[in-house]
Specification:
mainly beta, four-stranded antiparallel sheet, about 110 residues, 7 strands, 1 helix
């Protein structure tokens, strides 16, 4: 992928369901050790994925991920999930990117 790329996805599932994301591949630029919730967004030259529990970027942040460490599965609490990928200028030329599978789960039982 190219520097300065931004992609946004919104997931809507039927009532009584929720969204599950499972990362199956993850390599976004530089390797990092610290991945607290807002670290990736605060470092301006990091590529990152951020996931929100709702329809908008202002919805509750579920996680912000960067570097090469594979994130755990991410679950929405309801029927909506908002995802943003941002590639900044980080000087890393060969970046694999990420791949996720998306599943629709029953609201309470499936994990």
């Amino acid at each position: 992928y190219h520097d300065y790329t931004t992609c946004v996805w919104s997931f809507y599932v039927p009532d009584g369901r929720r969204v599950k994301l499972r990362f199956t591949d993850f390599e976004l630029g530089k390797s990092v050790v610290h991945t607290k919730d807002d670290f990736c967004r605060d470092i301006f030259d990091m590529d990152y994925v951020e996931i929100h529990d709702g329809l908008w970027s202002t919805s509750r942040l579920l996680g912000s991920y960067c570097g090469k460490k594979m994130p755990f599965d991410v679950y929405s609490s309801d029927r909506h999930m908002w995802i943003k990928f941002r590639a900044n200028r980080d000087g890393v030329r060969e970046k694999k990117g990420f791949k996720v599978t998306v599943a629709v789960l029953q609201q309470e039982n499936d994990i």
